[in-house]
């Protein structure tokens, strides 16, 4: 059976933590930032963990990362 390929689009968006969880960035931080509150923008800066319902699917996409 051939090796699985890492999806490069997913590899750019997700990364694994030391304990094997999957990190992601928040959405809504690209444009029209003058309309958003400072508090909102500050919270969106930090990374978040992927929900457990999506973990299995994303681990397949970034198999070797």
Automatic annotation (TrEMBL):
GO molecular function: structural constituent of ribosome
Keyword Transport included in the entry's annotation: no
Keywords tagged on the record: Ribonucleoprotein, Ribosomal protein
GO annotation (BP), single: translation
Presence of the UniProt keyword Isomerase in the record: no
Location of region: Disordered: 1-21
Signal peptide: none
GO cellular component: cytosolic large ribosomal subunit
InterPro entries per record: Ribosomal_bL35, Ribosomal_bL35-like, Ribosomal_bL35_CS, Ribosomal_bL35_sf
Family under the similarity heading: Belongs to the bacterial ribosomal protein bL35 family.
NCBIfam families per UniProt: rpmI_bact (TIGR00001)
PANTHER family: 54S RIBOSOMAL PROTEIN BL35M, LARGE RIBOSOMAL SUBUNIT PROTEIN BL35M
Name of this protein: Large ribosomal subunit protein bL35
Protein species of origin: Melghirimyces profundicolus
Lineage: Bacteria, Bacillati, Bacillota, Bacilli, Bacillales
Gene name of the record: rpmI
């Amino acid at each position: 059976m051939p090796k699985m390929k890492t999806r490069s689009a997913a590899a750019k968006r997700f990364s694994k933590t030391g304990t094997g969880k999957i990190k992601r960035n928040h959405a809504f931080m690209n444009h029209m930032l003058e309309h958003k509150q400072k508090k909102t923008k500050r919270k969106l800066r930090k990374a978040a963990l992927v929900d457990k319902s999506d973990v299995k699917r994303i681990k397949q996409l970034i198999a070797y990362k």
